[in-house]
Amino acid sequence: MKKILVIAPYPYLPFFSGGQKFIAQFLAYLADETELTVIGVESNDPSTITNYRLLPWLRKSFTRYLDPRLIGRVSREAKTGGYDAIICEHPYFAWLAIIVSRRTGIPWYLHSHNIEYQRFRSMGKWWWPILQFYERLAFRKADKVFFITPEDRAFAINQWNIPAANCVDLPFGVTIPSFPSDKQTKKQELANLHGLPSNETLILFNGLLRYKPNLDALMVILEKVNPLLLTEKNFSYRIIVCGKDLPETLNGLEKYKNQHVLYAGFVDDIEAYFTAADLFLNPVQSGGGIKTKMVEAIAYGATVIATETGATGINREVCGQKLITVPDNDWTGFAKAVIAQRDQQAVTPVGYYDYYYWKNLARRIAAIL
Questions:
Q1: Do residues 147 and 194 share a domain?
Q2: Per-residue exposure over 311-336, b if at least 16 CB sit within 10 Å of its own CB, e if not
Q3: 357: which DSSP letter?
Q4: What is the pLDDT of residue 12?
Q5: Are residues 201 and 157 in the same domain?
Q6: Which residues, 6+ apart, have CB-to-CB distance to 24 below 8 Å?
């Protein structure tokens, strides 16, 4: 069994965002296929780890990204541990991986979650050109780069001239291996939990709400899409919003309670909400990368209504009828798509799970390392 050393740059246990969840689940499944050690932030909660070793060597503060003491410490671990490969989650610690790889001769792999500079440029961060230069350098220095979306992989090959042989697809995965058999049961349980009529169409939105692209998408649902849905006669529905860090100014969405909107806050078992949902809304228009919650929603049997930007990164060929896309800013068309899909009962294709199930992905990556 191969020995792998991973550098994870920020807290991911417990996970609250899609990015944190990506790291947590990827490492958990990869540890079933390899002997895994993770160098992580000291604020991680290791109580949920069962199959790999966590070394809490990274400071909690931002200074961890520039800590020169890590060079000697990580190099010693790499030399004495007999590792076959190093994986760097995100490009931020690429400088460290490059130095350690040169000192030890161990190949290193960059796990890209987005084209990071594009994400921060879309958010208006002034320093994105600096990140662009650094990220491109990291791609060129890595032995291979794992990409979360085909679009990111194509960008690296076509725009930054990264050899195609060094670019590998590694999408965000799902923990469910097949279409759930208990959708109606979960829907009834959720209706009972929140005191909802059992015959309502359940429409879900989920995301970390302090993240601006998610908050912007929520406001689109509340202020642009839902007013159009309210005009539809004989449409009994409920929009359930899940996610932590809703701004206090929105007061728990009290203003929208009489408009078929329910704020559930952060929920421990989001999979139950995905399974119960008939539809999932993804009107995201910025932020870059794949919207991981959308991948999960389809796996758990919800039909996703997304903007073209929101659908970026997903393998549409395996989605069947479970992904409906609408042009950006066409909120009338978005609302019409919601209404048109309210009674549809399409099943997620088997090929979707072949492509996105974590165990399959971990085995593919383990064979490459």
A1: no
A2: bbbbbeebbbebbbbbeeeebeebbb
A3: B
A4: 97
A5: no
A6: 12, 13, 15
- Are 223 and 247 within 8 A, CB to CB? no
Measured from the Cβ of residue 257, the count of other Cβ atoms closer than 10 Å reads 11
pLDDT at 288: 56
Are 70 and 38 in contact by the 8 Å Cβ rule? The answer is: no
200 Cβ neighbours under 8 A, 6+ residues apart: 191, 236, 237, 238
Check whether residue 9 and residue 51 sit in a common domain. yes
Residue 119: pLDDT band by 50, 70, 90 thresholds? confident
Task: Supply the CATH number for residue 337's domain.
Answer: 3.40.50.2000
Asked if residue 138 and residue 221 are part of one domain, the reply reads no
What's the rounded Cα separation, in Å, for the pair 42 and 8? 11
Instruction: Average the pLDDT over 116-143 and give the result.
Output: 94
Domain that holds residue 345: 183-353
Task: Give 16's pLDDT tier (boundaries 50, 70, 90).
Answer: confident
Decide if pLDDT at 88 tops 60.
yes
Could you give the C-alpha distances from 81 to 77, 86, 103, 322, in angstroms and in order?
6, 12, 14, 45
Burial of 290 (0-12, 13-18, 19+ CB in 10 A): buried
In three-state secondary structure terms, 344 is coil
- pLDDT tier, 326 (very low <50, low <70, confident <90, very high otherwise): very high
Output the CA angle 181-184-185, nearest 5 degrees: 85
Q: Which candidate, 132, 32, 31, 145, places its Cα nearest to that of 87?
A: 145
Please state the rounded mean pLDDT for residues 153-173: 97
Question: Given the DSSP bridges, would you call strands 144-147 and 237-242 parallel, antiparallel or unpaired?
Answer: unpaired
DSSP structural state of residue 264: E
Question: Dihedral, CA atoms, 283, 242, 41, 359, nearest 10 degrees?
Answer: -80
The tally of CA atoms less than 13 A away on the side-chain side of residue 15 is 19
* DSSP symbols for 166-192: GEEE----BS--S--S-HHHHHHHHHH
